[in-house]
Amino acid sequence: MSALPPVDRASPSGVAALLKRHGLAPDKNLGQHFLVDRHALDTIVDAGAPNRTTTVLEIGAGLGTLTERLAERAGRVVAVEYDHRLAPVLDEAFADDPHVDTVYADAMKFDLGTLPEGSMLISNLPYQISTAILTRALMSARFSRLVVLVQKEVAQRLTAEPGAPLFGALSVIRSFFGPAQLVRDVAAGSFFPPPAVSSSVVRMDVTRHEAMPATLERLIRQGYAHRRKTLAKNLTMAGWPREQTSEALTATGLPAAVRAEALGIDTWLAFHDQLVSASSRA
């Protein structure tokens, strides 16, 4: 059997040829937009800076364009892809690559505990599950660094600081684990087919290597349930007794009418401890 002709996965014409070869088309329901911007691809890999001792998790391997670049530098790339139709494409590229393990599975069900501590998450994330994936990855405490290409609004939420318009639950949860920075924006024309939104590359460095208490995550999300309501009102609506909430606010030095967006992660930690303590005494 003759070898298949090589295809440039980082160009629109190459992607079109590869899809045609396998009788495929991008699945709109899965939000498939394949990155075809070489500079953006290099930026993602450089921001992660993996080396031959690094295990990288890639969520949404797609046609293997980013996978190919990661495999050139990382020791092991675990490329997770939900769309089983793409298996022939990825197997064609990486079946004999010792640095790539392809997994055809739902990323939200993939066992992150199988990865070594200190792994990296480097991905062009499927936009419809990006927030859920990032939260799950951070909460797993398995990663030392996350570099992701996401919708620009998600990037702004990830990097927002207290007082910013988009500062919310995701911002607080991220800040528990460490700092984040916007690396660069990526235009819609850098994808095949182009999405209807702008995108950005974000890098997050994990400096707190411990799991976030489940009660803290739940408390943060409850506090942001209705942004126009006070923190106390949101928590009362979520089932926290009014007296305990009021006691915890006072003990933390917060006004009764404070809203969730005014709290940075250190204040959330202090308030959480006071509220748990007040609840244990009730």
Topology of helices and strands:
Elements: H1 12-21, E1 34-35, H2 38-48, E2 55-59, H3 65-71, E3 76-81, H4 87-94, E4 100-104, E5 119-124, H5 130-140, E6 143-151, H6 152-159, H7 169-177, E7 180-186, E8 191-192, E9 199-205, H8 214-223, H9 231-237, H10 242-252, H11 265-281
Parallel strand pairs: 2-3, 2-5, 3-4, 5-6
Antiparallel strand pairs: 1-8, 6-9, 7-9
Helix pairs in contact: 9-10, 10-11
| Count of helix runs | 11
Using the coordinates shown, work out and report the CATH topology of the largest domain: Rossmann fold
Whole-number radius of gyration?
21 Å
Which runs of at least 5 residues are low in confidence (pLDDT < 50)? none
Major β-sheet, in short? Answer: 7 strands, mixed
- CATH class category name of the largest domain: Alpha Beta
The sequence of SSEs as H and E is: HEHEHEHEEHEHHEEEHHHH
CATH architecture annotation of the largest domain: 3-Layer(aba) Sandwich
Structure class: alpha/beta
How much is the average pLDDT? 95
**What's the shape?**
elongated
How would you explain this protein's 3D organization?
This protein has 282 residues and is α/β, with parallel strands linked by helices. It has 2 domains: 12-205, Vaccinia Virus protein VP39 (Rossmann fold, 3-Layer(aba) Sandwich), CATH 3.40.50.150; 214-281, rRNA adenine dimethylase, C-terminal domain (Helicase, Ruva Protein, domain 3), CATH 1.10.8. The chain contains 11 helices and 9 strands. The chain has helices spanning 12-21, 38-48, 65-71, 87-94, 130-140, 152-159, 169-177, 214-223, 231-237, 242-252, 265-281, and strands at residues 34-35, 55-59, 76-81, 100-104, 119-124, 143-151, 180-186, 191-192, 199-205. The strands form 2 sheets. A 7-stranded mixed sheet has the order 4-3-2-5-6-9-7, with helices on both faces. The protein is elongated, with a radius of gyration of 21 Å. The model has no long low-confidence stretch (mean pLDDT 95).
